């Protein structure tokens, strides 16, 4: 996400507008601690290391555990997802319970380098699976009447969802 300056600027502004008290960021839940270590210098530079609770785990079990604690339902104001693309739909269903009505969920990489709009024959083999997953997810949330969505062609594609029911 941070690689595209326009996307970073948008996220910064969006966070200031939403002013979330509780956030969940799926990339802060990772089976590899090394992923967190890569971002740690930036976290420290921003002075927010005390606000981040890195969880070394697969994300779905953590979300399921949060849902078992019924007090967590509807308790998050903002969520950001940039993780394993094959589980975007699973993350969405869980986050729809964890994020409050009026809350915002942002998904990264939803245009998969623009491949979602290209014919299959023009998509390199290494990007085909991602194209299919992204296109499938885009269709799914476009039909989800629980959210208002905005798909932006910044970076690798960003979809902003506001939970309305």
Automatic annotation (TrEMBL):
<comment type="function">
    <text>Methylates caffeoyl-CoA to feruloyl-CoA and 5-hydroxyferuloyl-CoA to sinapoyl-CoA. Plays a role in the synthesis of feruloylated polysaccharides. Involved in the reinforcement of the plant cell wall. Also involved in the responding to wounding or pathogen challenge by the increased formation of cell wall-bound ferulic acid polymers.</text>
</comment>
<dbReference type="Pfam" id="PF01596">
    <property type="entry name" value="Methyltransf_3"/>
</dbReference>
<keyword id="KW-0808">Transferase</keyword>
<comment type="similarity">
    <text>Belongs to the class I-like SAM-binding methyltransferase superfamily. Cation-dependent O-methyltransferase family.</text>
</comment>
<keyword id="KW-0489">Methyltransferase</keyword>
<dbReference type="GO" id="GO:0008757">
    <property type="term" value="F:S-adenosylmethionine-dependent methyltransferase activity"/>
</dbReference>
<dbReference type="InterPro" id="IPR029063">
    <property type="entry name" value="SAM-dependent_MTases_sf"/>
</dbReference>
<dbReference type="InterPro" id="IPR002935">
    <property type="entry name" value="SAM_O-MeTrfase"/>
</dbReference>
<dbReference type="GO" id="GO:0008171">
    <property type="term" value="F:O-methyltransferase activity"/>
</dbReference>
<keyword id="KW-0949">S-adenosyl-L-methionine</keyword>
<protein>
    <recommendedName>
        <fullName>Caffeoyl-CoA O-methyltransferase</fullName>
    </recommendedName>
</protein>
<dbReference type="InterPro" id="IPR050362">
    <property type="entry name" value="Cation-dep_OMT"/>
</dbReference>
<dbReference type="GO" id="GO:0032259">
    <property type="term" value="P:methylation"/>
</dbReference>
């Amino acid at each position: 996400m941070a690689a595209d300056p326009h996307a970073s600027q948008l996220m910064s502004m969006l966070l200031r507008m939403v002013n979330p008290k509780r956030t969940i960021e799926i990339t802060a839940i990772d089976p590899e601690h090394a992923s967190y270590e890569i971002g740690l210098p930036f976290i420290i530079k921003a002075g927010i290391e005390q606000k981040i609770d890195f969880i070394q785990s697969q994300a779905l079990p953590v979300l399921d555990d949060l849902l078992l604690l019924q007090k967590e339902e509807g308790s998050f104001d903002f969520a950001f997802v940039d993780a394993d693309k094959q589980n975007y739909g699973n993350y969405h269903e869980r986050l729809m319970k964890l994020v409050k009505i009026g809350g915002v969920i942002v998904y990264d990489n939803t245009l998969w380098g623009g491949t979602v709009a290209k014919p299959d024959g023009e998509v390199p083999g290494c990007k085909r699976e991602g194209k299919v997953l992204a296109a499938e997810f885009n269709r799914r949330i476009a039909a989800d009447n629980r959210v208002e969505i905005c798909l932006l062609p910044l970076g690798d594609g960003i979809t902003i969802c506001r939970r309305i029911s």
